[in-house]
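From the thread on structure requests for the teaching lab: each student submitted one protein with a one-line request. Submission from student K.M.:

"Model PHD-type domain-containing protein from Parnassius mnemosyne, tokens only."
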Amino acid sequence: MVKCSQCNKIVPKKSPGIQCGKFSKWTHGECTAISEEQLNVLNSTDSVDWKCRTCTGTAKPKRISCIIPDAEEDTGSSSELQYNTLMRKIISDIRRELREIMQQELQTTLQFFSEKMDEYQEKIKEYEINLKLTDNQIKDIKTTKKTCH
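Reply posted by the TA:
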């Protein structure tokens, strides 16, 4: 395992990190202020040679190795835009349907538990009545026993 050159913590395989092309030091994406999406692009591109701030200094580089478009920015062809629009609509429809299903399931579950609570309350009332009757019978038996002696 390697340690981050910025925070000196381990850079695990599941956490995105990037290796400096000059001195081969590893750095967490968070420590370099590079998003996970940007890290994925940098890591998947062979021709990009990334250098850490220590190696480049504080000055901005004169030449940018790669340009990563914003997630909202659409730079594709019209068929790609149509595809993206269609995919967004499908995902939106799926989310809406899932919300509706979850709401229905929650309502059904709440109704079930509400009915169970009502049943339990009725049973508790029956038990309380039976307990009072039993208490009264015990009192009557005690009274009868006292008068018999």
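TA comment: The first strand starts at residue 2 and ends at 3. The beta strands are 2-3, 10-11, 17-19, 26-28.
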